[in-house]
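Supplementary notes for students who missed Thursday's class. We covered one full example, reproduced here. Read the sequence, then the structure, then the short commentary at the end.
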Amino acid sequence: YPSGSLAIIVIREKKRLICIIQEDKPNNAEIRAVFKSNGRSTCYYPNGAVWISMSIQGGQYLDQEGSRVRRWTWPNSIMSSGPHVPLSPIFISLNQHVGVRILGQDKITVSFLAMGQQAKFNVGTKVQVSDECRLPPPAWLGEDELLLLAFRVRILRLCDRLRGCLNFPSNEQRDKVKPPAYLITQTLKILQLCATSDISDELRSSVRAIVNA
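Structure (token representation):
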């Protein structure tokens, strides 16, 4: 960056290449995006929330509350179920110097512009798929991750309830206000993950109790 802080790092990890974009800070800089040559990549909002998440199957674009704005599948991916959803071109600015353009699985570009000079990095990849080679299934969340997600939704629901108490002192008015759509969506997603993940019945019951409390 013009400030002298490191903006983009490209490293090799065994047979993979990893491109890391950092925020413009001299110390303890947060990561704004990670692109891996195995097809797994993530971009983050300034507050740390996931902005864009991509895998070898496709990707999704989220808002800052965690609700999905759009999703897509790559043309050459083989999904276990569900229709193929084409990608609409995406361009985001991680900050005033770094932008990300997504036009396809192998057409993902990180652009760096500062002091009248520009550098571009192609961080896309191409996964070849044949009838004999099917993509591996997506990794399931672990027990700790499921619990953390459940507690996060629970805290968000409590904060929403607190706002309702402040805005609507009357119980009758407050009971008529429904939770935000993104909270309902996230609750349903966690319950679906519980149903499909390989976890104990005890943990499954605990997660359900947390999000439904």
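Commentary. The chain has two domains: 8-122, 143-212. The helical segments are 143-167, 171-176, 181-196, 201-212. If anything here is unclear, bring it to office hours.
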